[in-house]
Amino acid sequence: MFVGLTLDTAGVQVVIILPVCRRMEGHMEYNVAQMLQEPMGSVRQSQVQETSVTLDEVEVNRLEGWLKFTRTDIGIWVKGRLKAEVSAQCSRCLKGFDSPLNTEINEEFYSAVEVKAGTALAESVMEEEAFKISPTNVLDIREVFRQNIVSRMPMKPLCKQDCAGICPDCGVDRNEAECHCDVRTVDPRWERLLDLLPSTDKES
Ligand SMILES: [Zn+2]
Ligand SMILES: [Zn+2]
Fold first, then answer.
1. Which residues surround ligand 1, an ion (CB under 5 A)?
2. Distance from Cα 101 to the centre of ligand 2, integer Å
3. 0.70 surpassed by pTM
4. Cystine design at 38: which of 3, 42, 48, 131 (Cβ 3.0–4.6 Å)?
5. Whole-angstrom Cα distance, residue 145 to residue 30?
6. Which residues pair with 191 in a beta bridge?
7. What are the pLDDT digits (tens) for 43-85?
């Protein structure tokens, strides 16, 4: 355990841009080898700017924000705020569009080295779901970010709030053209209310 380790309260926290090991564009990986040598409470901050990142099924564009790394007793705590545009498909007209999304990252990554040292604390928190720093000291933010995005994405994304959708009869995109299969060209949000009206009103 780290009972003897206390924060140097007199010390000045210096924020330095973290040495980043991005092997290629779109890989949100950070080399934290040096940071893991530092005492608890050390802080680094890093700007995030990516044109495009693919996270399994999620495609993220124009990613911007910052991440703050804080050394803890068993690893590194990552906090941050990220703004991005996520590729989505409209649930009404089926067109692809970029949906703006803001996410917050707040997650502790456990150090594999710390765990190898075999502290009881480290072992108890090293569950399967826990995020880990790789044995080569690379902290990969992608999975945390992906889970965050998936949980924030709407179940039925809309390209615009009043998207008219596709005609179920002729397949015309009602945002672009009018079709004459159905006189009831209503905002889909009102459809359920109209069903409650007598049928003569529906056709007007
Ligand atoms: Zn749409
Ligand atoms: Zn139609």
1. 90, 92-93, 159, 163
2. 33
3. no
4. 42
5. 14
6. none
7. 999 888 888 888 888 899 999 999 999 999 989 999 999 999 9
